[in-house]
Amino acid sequence: MSVEEDVMRIQKKLTKMTSGDGQEQALELLKALQNLPVNLEILTKTRIGMTVNALRKSSNDDEVISLSKTLIKNWKKFLGPNIGKESTPTSSSKKPASKPTIKEERKEEDIKKDKTKHTSFPPANTTDAVRLKCRELLVSALKTDHNDSFEGCATPEELAEELEEAIFQEFKNTDNRYKNRVRSRVSNLKDTKNPQLRTNFLCGALTANKLAVMTAEEMASDEMKALRNKFVKESIDDAQLATVQGTKTDLLKCAKLDSSKCDAANVQTRSADEPMTTFVMCNECGNRWKFC
């Protein structure tokens, strides 16, 4: 059996564990994975890095979390410059190394920064321009001037890729539904009045699969949810009033028309031990008011 097949077999078992199944064998599977000669090609084909990262987030076992971090750290080395390939110079070939100039040092630093900026893990699994642009927008929404970071959690680039992948898997294309879904995630993650949504996603309390399908009401801040509940309650009260048959009375007058042709109705809008509320409606102009 090839290394790739071994990795795929382990990945299937780990995927079931990340969805909530028993994780008793997780540590053994990770140790077996650590002993396999995994290379960049296998990482790209199998996307085992995403699976191990998801397992790390869902597990409560300290050993599983620690070994998962170690595996991901080792695999990330494939993305940078090859290390360990420099040959040891012999005594006959030793030459004094020339000191790099300030200009060369700055150029080298710029190259390193550029690689750090554009390199994410696991390697991007798409070349679609629309999908890549959407990932950039999601990364921008996750990054702020505060540069919040959570130790042991995925980077904004990794989270943006997971979220975009989850949205794409739902629609299987990049049509308007896909674009609108991405736009709504970007808008809500950038909302300064709802920082909790972004924080929950960055620290792992909210998964990419969950955030990908949440409605606007579910993503809203606690303040907005309370305001919506208030409006819903008022609408229900109005609907209840409309269905209650009022009693004709000429004891009350409409403030608009000075008319006495009114209907009065008592409605229980509060708890049972509270007095009922009297609503009055003018039969001529339709004006409504509460009578205290």
TrEMBL record:
State any GO BP term from the record.
transcription elongation by RNA polymerase II
Instruction: Report which superkingdom the organism of origin falls in.
Output: Eukaryota
Q: Which PROSITE patterns match?
A: TFIIS_CENTRAL (PS51321), TFIIS_N (PS51319), ZF_TFIIS_2 (PS51133)
In which residue ranges is the amino acid composition biased (Low complexity)?
Answer: 87-100
Q: Identify the InterPro entries for this entry.
A: TF_IIS-typ (IPR035100), TFIIS/CRSP70_N_sub (IPR003617), TFIIS/LEDGF_dom_sf (IPR035441), TFIIS_cen_dom (IPR003618), TFIIS_cen_dom_sf (IPR036575), TFIIS_N (IPR017923), TFSII (IPR006289), Znf_TFIIS (IPR001222)
Q: Which UniProt keywords apply?
A: DNA-binding, Metal-binding, Nucleus, Transcription, Transcription regulation, Zinc, Zinc-finger
Per UniProt, subcellular location reads as: Nucleus
What Gene Ontology molecular-function terms does this entry list? DNA binding; zinc ion binding
Q: Which residues cross the membrane?
A: none
Q: GO CC annotations? A: nucleus
Q: Which NCBIfam families match?
A: TFSII
Job description of the protein: Necessary for efficient RNA polymerase II transcription elongation past template-encoded arresting sites. The arresting sites in DNA have the property of trapping a certain fraction of elongating RNA polymerases that pass through, resulting in locked ternary complexes. Cleavage of the nascent transcript by S-II allows the resumption of elongation from the new 3'-terminus.
Concerning its family, UniProt says: Belongs to the TFS-II family.
What name has this protein been given in UniProt? Transcription elongation factor
